[in-house]
Write a structure and sequence with these properties.
mainly alpha; single chain; 12 helices; binds fe (ii) ion; 287 residues; Ferritin
Length: 287
């Protein structure tokens, strides 16, 4: 990943979450994660739209992993003695309401940025929970989430290197999701008890997570300086560009799209040059 575990680790200064005392709060948190994992069904959509074999393979494996995570969160709810429940409206909006239109938007917004935020929330629970069994389940899930974030980062960086014009659009869209994360933070601040050692640090944690998100945007090559230094006008222009292009591109999206079944013979993994083919390839077996 472009950010290390250390860079994404927030200093909770010893604050802890207790499965007994904080049962209802932990139940609420796990239900937000549970909903996020069920959005793994969207891997099916991205598998069908995959531009190459590398991406298709990744989405197929990711779907399996996200449904393992569904089981993980059901198991944790069981351990807590809490029931599965509906997510908060903003979590729903962030995970399904903003479903992007293109592969590039998906890898940037949902995988690098979105799963990046989810990963930091997982680290937050892992670092504070007083329950070895729950921590172990979350550690295993976090390792797989790290791979999802890594794929999103790599493919975003590759996409903007190939098409620099994509930058402004991806930046505009990510400013909107940052706004939604901030709104969710404000909701949490208003609704949750302030005298709790972990919850009291939540506003700081959120700022930290948003800073990490901006660092990620910079390292993927989306922005050169700091996003915080962009003038409100430039931010507004990026958002307008993001949504303006969506409308302008609508006729193109209505055209039948070329899928991997049309293009696989040109795929990097299929159309290898003679030198790329190893000595023990299938041709040699025929001979
Ligand atoms: Fe997951
Ligand atoms: Fe994931």
């Amino acid at each position: 990943m472009l950010l290390s575990r250390e860079e994404m680790t927030f200093d909770w200064r010893g604050a802890r979450l207790h499965p007994g005392r904080d049962r209802a709060l932990l139940g609420w948190v796990m239900n937000q994660f549970l909903y996020g994992e069920v959005t793994g069904i969207q891997c099916g959509h991205w598998l069908y739209a995959a531009p190459d074999l590398d991406a298709a393979r990744f989405f197929a494996r990711q779907a399996v992993e996200e449904f393992q995570h569904v089981d993980n969160f059901l198991r944790i709810l069981d351990l807590l003695g809490e029931k599965p429940a509906a997510p908060h409206a903003l979590v729903r909006f962030l995970s399904t309401g903003m479903m992007p239109a293109t592969f590039e938007e998906h890898v940037c917004l949902e995988m690098a940025m979105g799963e990046g935020f989810v990963l930091m929330a997982l680290y937050g629970v892992i670092d504070t929970i007083d329950h070895e069994g729950i921590r172990e389940i979350l550690l295993r899930a976090a390792r797989q989430e790290e791979r999802h974030v890594d794929f999103g980062e790599r493919r975003t960086a590759l996409a903007v290197r190939g098409r620099p014009a994509l930058r402004r659009r991806l930046l505009g869209l990510s400013l909107v999701s940052t706004w939604a994360v901030r709104r969710l933070g404000r909701f949490l601040q208003r609704k949750l008890p302030r005298d709790h050692p972990v919850l009291a640090r939540l506003p700081e944690f959120l700022e930290f997570a948003l800073d990490c998100g901006q660092l990620r945007q910079r390292r993927m090559g989306l922005v050169e300086g700091s996003v915080a230094d962009l003038s409100p006008w430039r931010k507004a222009a990026a958002i307008a560009a993001a949504y303006g292009t969506s409308l302008a591109a609508l006729p193109l999206r209505l055209l039948p799209r070329r899928r991997l079944t049309d293009t696989h013979l040109r795929d990097r993994e299929v159309a290898r040059t003679d030198e790329e083919q190893s000595g023990d390839g299938p041709l040699h077996i025929v001979r």
